[in-house]
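Good morning,

Attaching, inline, the backbone tokens for the sequence recovery test we're adding to the shared suite. The designed sequence is right after.
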């Protein structure tokens, strides 16, 4: 089986999701988007992969004129979702899923960068996989300023104080996470090295020291919740592989 991860910038990779995915898929490959260039031929593999993970990135869904690859990625993700192909989107990837499935992505008018709680929706708490994301403080890592309307047929995942939509599901096959449950301490340092210019004084934006302290306090717990969610969700599609990996 083959998993394809669409990577929009090098520092935003599968992170802590890498190991659970590799336990189930004998082929795991990244397709790197070309900055401000058009989509390459490798992106066409989205159509045939068993699992597609659309990762985060600093560009916006509505910036297709500046980032021409986005138009083709939206088409391919939209076709994949319509066909029921298992697809996971994270941050920008979640916004791509929203737009591709008929929703609308817009500037949020505010920022959400740092460690903030998410209140999971009743639908998510009742779901065997998504409910694994819940904890007493419901703290998640965020880095975004855009938001989206739920696409037709989507079920809400949850909300935060700053943004009413923090993700959604489409049937069993599509899960979109506006927040990050895959970033570990090493990944955060890579982000800080590249994204520090976005951390100026602003409401809803934590500084480097706060981000590192949040990782120290919440990172291990979030990583465990994220992996458990992913393992359970993958098991709904590939139960034999999950059993082989020793997952209950």
């Amino acid at each position: 089986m083959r998993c394809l991860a669409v990577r929009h910038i090098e520092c935003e990779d599968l992170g802590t999701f890498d190991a659970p995915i590799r336990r189930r898929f004998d082929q795991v490959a990244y397709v790197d988007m070309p900055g401000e260039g058009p989509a390459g031929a490798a992106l066409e593999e989205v159509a045939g992969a068993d699992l597609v993970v659309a990762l985060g990135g600093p560009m916006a869904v509505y910036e297709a004129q500046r980032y021409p690859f986005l138009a083709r990625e939206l088409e391919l993700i939209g076709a994949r979702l319509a066909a029921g192909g298992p697809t996971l989107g994270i941050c920008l990837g979640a916004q791509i899923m929203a737009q591709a499935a008929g929703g609308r992505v817009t500037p949020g008018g505010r920022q959400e960068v740092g460690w903030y709680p998410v209140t999971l929706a009743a639908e998510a708490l009742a779901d065997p996989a998504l409910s694994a994301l819940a904890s007493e403080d419901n703290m998640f890592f965020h880095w975004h300023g855009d938001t989206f309307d739920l696409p037709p047929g989507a079920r809400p995942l949850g909300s935060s104080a700053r943004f009413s939509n923090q993700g959604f599901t489409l049937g069993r096959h599509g899960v979109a996470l506006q927040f990050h449950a895959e970033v570990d301490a090493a990944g955060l340092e890579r982000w800080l090295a590249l994204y520090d210019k976005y951390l100026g004084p602003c409401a809803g934006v934590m500084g480097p020291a706060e981000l590192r302290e949040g990782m120290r306090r919440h990172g291990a717990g979030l990583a465990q919740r994220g992996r458990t969610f992913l393992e359970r969700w993958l098991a709904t599609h590939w139960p034999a592989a999950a059993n082989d990996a020793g997952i209950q």
